[in-house]
Design a protein that fits this description.
By secondary structure, the chain is an all-alpha fold. The chain contains five helices and no strands. It has a domain of about 35 residues.
């Protein structure tokens, strides 16, 4: 699931970057690049409004995806560095009882035949 969120975040970030690069910092934006074609289709004011709304939309999408992806990060990952930060166990150690092994009787032992 994290791969899906990662892919969507990267895709939305690329689109956001392209929208920002299309905008002209002096206010001309996309409409000045096409030499009046933008004026005939949408008008100058409409072009900058669309690009500004697109910037805010994709910035919001990236933010929501980043915050939502944190929910799907597994919490039970145990790595070597996590073991150093774990609290020591506070439960008392249980006493294990040992049972003596039965001793073999002389009848159970099989001596090796001598040759």
């Amino acid at each position: 699931m994290l791969y899906v969120f990662g892919t969507l975040i990267i895709l939305a970030s690329i689109i956001l970057g392209l929208i920002i690069l299309i905008q002209n910092p002096k206010g001309g934006g996309l409409s000045s690049s096409f030499g009046g074609i933008g004026n005939q289709l949408m008008g100058v004011k409409q072009t900058t409004d669309v690009l500004e709304k697109g910037t805010w939309l994709f910035a919001g999408i990236v933010a929501v995806l980043c915050l939502t992806s944190a929910i799907f990060i597994p919490k039970s990952s145990s790595s070597a560095s996590d073991k150093y930060y774990e609290a020591p166990a506070t439960s008392p150690a249980t006493k294990q009882t040992t049972v003596p092994l039965p001793q073999p009787t002389p009848q159970q032992t099989n001596p090796q035949p001598s040759k």
